[in-house]
Design brief:
Elements lengths: L1 E7 L7 E7 L10 E7 L6 H14 L3 E5 L17 H15 L5 E11 L1 H12 L3 E7 L4 H7 L11 H14 L7 E3 L11 H11 L11 E3 L3 H4 L8 H4 L4 E6 L5 H10 L5 E6 L6 H4 L1 H18 L2
Parallel strand pairs: 3-4, 3-5, 5-6, 6-9, 9-10
Antiparallel strand pairs: 1-2, 2-4, 7-8
Helix pairs in contact: 2-3
Length: 306
């Protein structure tokens, strides 16, 4: 069972958030439930992998909420497709603000998880927001690291300064114009993909596999000025003390970003589960891989949100 909801984001930008609540079988509004906030990948929407994981968690007795970030999906805000990572992190806390108003949500048992960039944003939210009692990550991406250092961590930070130049120039170009400069968050054409793994990202977002009219797969170039200097794991060494479960594919080029978070986090309860044969994208929706991930995530949240 699920329910589409909307609510005001209290972070000061006048945004109305759109979300879908997923409920376990036999849901009773008079009872209190552990609840998990599920954040979608960059360029995605709640109807894709975030909604899939939320529904699977609900099948395991949890309430779960998948939401569209500010300026994206069915949530409001202009300009569209803004991907400011600081806003995206704060959106998770805005969803928790809403959850605390629901009588069936146990405020002491709220967790957060995300897929791809949504996992990085969830980690950053957990560093900042102590209402998050447990953190789950699937194919985690620290969006700042990815843009600075490349998919496989082969680029030095200083060599990414050209992106700051590009973002700065885009802001000037955007001024007073109706059409804003954009950048792809996943390949917009198959031939643009640098490798087979990222060609699968094109397939996910731009073919019937998972395409959605509100998930164009791009962001605004002006956001490079925030993305390049952003670290989703900033101060994890001091403040990320909650239990952590990271799920990554054995063939994922992005696996190093899960490794980095687990190495840095202050938590003493942190685990990496490797799904053999899976790459970054296949953990989004390939049934056998998703089921294996959920078989780890569901008991993790049941244990840590007791």
């Amino acid at each position: 069972m699920s329910s589409n909801v909307s609510f005001k984001n209290l972070n000061g930008q006048g945004i109305t958030m759109a979300a879908t609540l997923h409920f376990p079988a036999g849901f009773d509004e008079s009872k209190k439930y552990a609840t998990v906030v599920v954040s979608h990948p960059g360029g995605g929407v709640k109807e894709q992998t975030a909604g899939l994981y939320a529904s699977k968690l609900a099948e395991n007795g949890l309430v779960a909420i998948a939401f569209d970030r500010s300026y994206q999906g069915a949530s409001s805000g202009e300009p569209r497709q803004l991907e400011n990572p600081y806003v995206s992190t704060e959106d998770i806390s805005a969803v928790i603000d809403y959850l605390t108003t629901l009588p069936y949500v146990d405020q002491a048992r709220i967790g957060a998880m995300g897929i791809c960039a949504g996992a990085g944003y969830s980690a950053n939210a957990a560093i900042n927001d102590r209402r998050i009692k447990a953190l789950g990550m699937v194919s985690a991406v620290n969006i700042g690291q990815m843009f600075r250092n490349g998919w496989e961590n082969k680029v030095k930070d200083a060599d990414a300064v050209a992106y700051l130049d590009f973002g700065s120039n885009a802001r000037t170009s955007d001024a007073g114009k109706p059409e804003l400069v954009t950048i792809p968050l996943a390949p917009l054409k198959k031939e643009d993909a640098p490798n087979a793994e990222l060609a699968e990202a094109w397939e996910y977002y731009h073919t019937p596999r998972a395409e959605h009219p509100r998930a164009p797969g791009y962001a605004l170039a002006r956001n490079l000025n925030q993305i390049i200097t952003y670290d989703a794991y900033h101060l994890a060494e001091a403040f990320l003390t909650q239990p952590i479960l990271a799920v990554a594919g054995s063939a994922a080029g992005s696996k190093w970003m899960s490794d980095d978070l687990l190495a840095r986090a202050a938590s003493r309860d942190k685990t990496l589960h490797i799904v053999q044969g899976a790459n970054h994208m296949s953990l989004y929706d390939v049934p056998s891989y998703v089921n294996e991930a959920v078989a780890q995530l569901a008991p993790f949240f049941q244990r840590t949100l007791k």
